[in-house]
Write a sequence for this structure.
């Protein structure tokens, strides 16, 4: 695919030329329609994307305390401790609940002592 904007005359030539005959020429209207129809699927992504590699942040580097993609894992974090995002989030959620429970008990103790 060339991925170039062509005027009507150039698009016609593009369709006729032997080298580019197999290319699919898309009109601006069709392209706009495709982009508009893709917007909901982009918003419905389950995981955010890495700003460096445009890949899903599927892992969490426990050493750096930062979400990472598979490329980051191999290139910059290979010697670090990391886990799959869903596992790490589940573990952190449990720790937060436990700490909250302990904090609520302490608050109740202080209120009763006052």
């Amino acid at each position: 695919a060339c991925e170039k904007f062509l005027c009507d005359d150039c698009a016609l030539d593009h369709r006729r030329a032997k080298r580019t005959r197999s290319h699919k020429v898309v009109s601006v209207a069709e392209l706009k329609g495709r982009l508009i129809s893709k917007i909901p699927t982009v918003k419905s992504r389950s995981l955010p994307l890495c700003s460096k590699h445009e890949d899903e942040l599927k892992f969490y580097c426990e050493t750096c305390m930062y979400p990472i993609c598979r490329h980051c894992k191999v290139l910059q974090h290979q010697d670090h401790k990391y886990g799959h995002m869903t596992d790490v989030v589940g573990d952190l959620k449990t720790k937060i609940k436990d700490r909250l429970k302990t904090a609520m008990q302490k608050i109740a103790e202080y209120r009763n002592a006052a």
